Amino acid sequence: MGARYNRLVMTTPSDPELFREVFGRFATGVAVITSAASAASGGMTANALCSLSLDPLLALVCFENNARTLGIVREAGRFGVNVLGADQEDVAEVFASKMPEAEKLEAVAHRYEAEVPIIDGALSWVACTLRELIAGGDHTIAIGEVVAMGLGGGDPLLWYAGRYHDVGLVAER
What we know:
Layout: H1 16-24, E1 28-29, E2 31-36, E3 41-46, E4 49-54, E5 57-64, H2 68-76, E6 78-83, H3 89-96, H4 101-106, E7 110-113, E8 116-119, E9 124-136, E10 139-151, E11 157-160, E12 163-166, H5 167-172
Antiparallel strand pairs: 1-11, 2-3, 2-6, 4-5, 5-10, 6-9, 7-8, 9-10, 11-12
């Protein structure tokens, strides 16, 4: 095991860069949130998500308030959570880009489940109907009720310290 140390940083509680770095030390999976409405379709790469409830089955996703995908989710009233595998970093990059929303979906193989775009090869996925949107600072928290879900196979794509990793590389550190 590597040496552990604590770096004491004196800061004010309103230091957003340190806040981002602190939470960047929390390894997360990488997902793409997708949606399709009559006027638009698209998606975004995200890691601020979690399962929320088993009864009923609920998922929670956080959107930056100016995220283009949030408008699509509002109009559609549904969204998909596509958990990416270690071999899908290119997919994460497409959905993290500023390209037009519809072009993002055109760039990756996908299908529709419960009227939601689901990315082919995803490690797992859920399709949700939107139950609630909650203001949360510069983000909006979406709660969705799961209406369909499925499993793929493989290892997860991870986000840690501002970069993509796979499980093997993180375990070697």
